[in-house]
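Key idea: predict the complex, not the pieces.
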Amino acid sequence: MRINPYNNVKYQWAVYVVFFIFLACIPTIVGDDVFLLNQLSTYGVYGILALSLSLCWGFGGILNLGQGIAFGLGSYGMAMTMQLQSQDILEDRIPPFMLNNAVETLPAIWEPFWNAGAGISLALIVPTLFCLIFGGLMFWGRVSGPFFAIMTLAMLSAFYTIFIDLQYLTNGVNGITPPMALEVGPYLVDPYSSVSFWVVFVALLLCTVVAKLITQSKFGLIVQAQKNDPERTRFLGYNVALYETIIYAFSGFIAAIAGCCFAMLTQYVSPGQFDVGFSISMVIWVAIGGRASLLWGMLGAFMVQGAQSYLGDQFLSTWLLILGFFFILVVRFLPGGLAGLVEVILGYFSSNSSGTKGSNSEPKRVD
Amino acid sequence: MAGMLELKNLNKNFDAVHVINDFSLEVFENSLCCLVGPNGAGKTTTLDLITGRQAPSSGKIILNGVDITGKAEQAICRLGIGRKFQIPAIFRELSVEQNLAVAHSIEINPIKNIFSFSSKNYKTKMDEIADKVGLSHRLPEMAGNLSHGEIQWLEIGMLLMQDAPLLLLDEPVAGMTEGEVSKTVDILNELKKIKTLIVVEHDMGFVRRIADVVTVMHMGSLLAKGSIEQIEKNQEVRNVYLGTEDE
Amino acid sequence: MLASIVNPLILGISIGSILLISALGLAVIYGAAGVINMAHGEFIMLGAYSTYTLQSTMGMPFLLCIPCAFFIVGIIGFVIERNLICYLYNRPLDTLLATWGVSLVLMQSSRLIFGSDVKYIAMPEFLSTNLELGILNFSTFRLFLIAVALILLFITWFIFYRTRLGIKIRAVTQNKEMAASFGINAAQVYSITFAFGAGLAGAAGAMFGALSIVLPTMGMHYVVEAFLMVVTGGGSILGTVFASTLAGEIQSIFAFIFNDTMARGLLFILIVVLLRFRPQGLLSTGSGRR
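Result:
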């Protein structure tokens, strides 16, 4: 029997190394075009998001249509931190948009964000905590599959309306636009420079390595097992709800990191982060790239977002129409996405070259 | 001597239907007890009650002196009960090796499992068990590609990895060929030296080859209990169950 | 004083009727065919646009537009079921994704055809008045919605429990193989059910377009709440009716105490907590597997 090279763990790591070496060359290739570099860094953020979703959905079998929640909470936390960095704790305590809303004292919820460290920590902890609580409630109630997906969608739309409604805290639909770039100690992280590119690069690299390690641990094996058959897993003594909650919360944590990077890069957050359409596109990236593969999830994000901005705004409607059709086709005929296609092709070549037929395993449908 | 597992006056109703009716049973250590009875006698439901998949309407389930009635599935399992399902439940998208690795559930703490990457400390045990259930040569194969008999054995192998002292097997030879049945008989006769087993089965020929004690259920109640010879002579049992297929 | 208590209760029934109208088609499709139809909101949107088109090009009266919207969207639903959904019945998560793709396509198509500006549906005179009964005060359109909800419910009940088709649908829902062995064409039953559910969404769209505005993105607003009603109700039509009425009242009471947005948020949280303790929904007995 011959194993498809696609499933060889060593080869997989090698491909990841090549992928990151290529990403590391980007600043050299791009050169002085800081606007392009900023845009490419934003794609890196989308890559982190795609990674978080394929970990949760492709790997853990938990379809999450509300990944925007963790992303949005993270980005708001970062934007609040950056906003207060441009204010003065004694003289100029209240952000301008609040003054416009006739807020006279800084709301207590903003106070911890005076300290950048505390603010960024909160930006990561709050979304993770939300996932732990919400996921815990759902998974202990054994809400799973499509129903969990719908509940995440409902939660997302609740967040969307609440963030618009809490005008005095969030500036409603207009969102928060911190006037200055993020300061870390004495350094300024200029979004239009290679510094911010490297920040995103390191974040993406760390998230990928940790996520990949998780998939290869015993924990990862049990997560895969519960995706296959939750009841069997339970009857082996594992607390399936706990495992689901942890993988869901970890995925939320990664999305929150993406949120932080996003606010840092764009100096702008709005309820658009909680928009259902945005969370839809995350699912589309991962579905087209290949939900079972972390790397292909990221590539899916790069391809879809890249094509979208290449075509520009006047073709946006047509593009979204084509994307919708493409998405339907992938779900109907290619559930493994492009990654599934690559797996089949590699399997075909490897079984041909070794000359053994029949015994090589069929590519499995993942869902 | 009290039994390892005691069921005391179990009752289970689904709305107005009495599925289990005042059923009591005692299973002793290192014995193989067969649970037989016609369709709908409540055999699988009894296993569901023992393993916590369903809660009994009344009655008690005691394992090694501990009352486990109404606990969660994974908690009961941790106390030492392994279960094989009627429709074999394995992880189809994982390899045979991975199936066995998951079943090695000594450590259930998810945080510790995140930092666990090697299968060294249970590798020998895994090889032994794979050998015992005859799957040594199939370890890298995707479990979904196994034959029906192999899947049944894999599930038994998983129970062994799990290392529970009490095993509940629901129709372990359903759909097997004669050769496969014989092999399963050998595996089970080997097993009962070190484990306690409850086997739900229809096939009296198979029961004859493995059982120490046979318990006959009918309409959710205990009909008869004894050795296979006693059961086969029992007129009541013949009437409700064996009557038609006595050879 | 009395009015301030009674009016929210009546408003609650009105909200409940809107929830029910939007969720009914979804419940039919989920309950009978097990399909999670994410394009439901876009079916509502198509219903609204059909009404708008019929009204603005042919001058069709509003009341006649409702059944027309039902048939137009029903046919669209039938076509989609035949060409996509019917291949995905044993893959629930993929059905969800595929219908989501459908929703994207429908939304973008109507944006390209009708543009993204707001359209309005004209209502007949007698529906745009206010009715005053002593201390009580409500708009006739809201009363009309309650009536329509009851009529649609009655039609659904009649089809499911008083026609041969209904017997077939229920047979297929209970046991597909068994029904097939009695010569019932399960695929056909699914198609008709799906078309019927889509049609109900179309009729809902005609109403909602008149209630507020017509936009390509209007569907998203309804679909989430509609889903919550179906999930909370446990997937059955009766459960959906129950959940909608209850949710309407709760939302109206919360809105009376706090404000509309808070009411929506609180209702969502309430449902999440409810599902923790009754994951099978309000009106459903335990589920059996294996």
